[in-house]
Amino acid sequence: MLWFRTATFMSLLFLGLYIQPGILVEANGSIRSYEKKIIGEYIIGLGTTPASPSMGVTHFAAFVENEQTGTKYVDAEIEFVSSFSAIDLPEADPVLMKNSIMDPMYYEIDTSFNKEGVWFVMLTVRRDGDEVSVVYEVEVQEPNPIVPILTVGALLFFLAILSLSLRSWIKEYKRKHKIRRTS
After folding, report:
1. Which pLDDT tens digit goes with each residue over 33-73?
2. Cβ-Cβ contacts under 8 Å for 139 (sequence gap 6 or more)
3. Sign of the Cα pseudo-torsion (122, 125, 131, 134, in order)
4. 107-139, pLDDT tens digit by residue?
């Protein structure tokens, strides 16, 4: 019976993978989408985790791609600067984004937002003597309190099911051992 379940599961898994559309999926960890801008000969993309940043730490990932060839560069130098409004001075000094360990074509940095509202992120890309800058708007929102509540609720639900299952198993185990000892 176990082999039948395994075969069914594997068949459904492969069928699901086969039905998936044949589009190119770019990924960096859990960043699902990148905002892309074309500046000169470069396409510069910036993505965040979480997708809707809130106050606190936000993970940024960027890439630099050649517009004509689609080649992503691993040797670019990307400088990251953020400010709360266009007229404010940057919140911190420019910081160089580092190549990702998992995929060196992506550059990553973690930064913290201390205010809600629209933040401006400027990326300055230097490569082979060229220097281009691009500005992105990032809206920092109040976090949704429903997600952590649902997560804790689901965790408690699974713990309750696990404890009830364990309780039933212990009762059955004791009953079987009691019968063996008496006979």
Report:
1. 899 999 989 999 999 988 888 888 899 999 999 999 999 99
2. 52, 53, 117, 118, 119
3. negative
4. 999 988 888 889 999 999 998 888 999 999 999
Q: What is the SS3 assignment for 139?
A: strand
Provide the pLDDT for residue 181: 64
> Are the C-beta atoms of residues 68 and 44 closer than 8 Å to each other?
no
pTM of the model: 0.65
Q: With 90 as the cut, is the pLDDT of residue 76 above it?
A: yes
Is the peptide bond prior to 21 cis by the omega test (within 30 degrees of 0)?
no
Secondary-structure breakdown of the chain: helix, strand, coil percentages, each rounded to the nearest 5: 30, 40, 30
Residue 78: in which H helix or E strand, if any? strand 77-83
Compute the distance between CA of residue 60 and CA of residue 108 in angstroms, rounded to an integer. Answer: 6
- The C-alpha atoms of residue 149 and residue 181 are separated, in whole angstroms, by 48
Please state, in angstroms and as integers, the Cα–Cα distance from residue 114 to each residue in 11, 26, 47, 56, 148, following that order.
49, 30, 19, 6, 20
Q: Which of 120, 93, 124 is nearest to 107 (CA)?
A: 124
Instruction: Tell me what pLDDT residue 51 has.
Output: 83
- Phi and psi at 36, nearest 5°, equal -105, 140
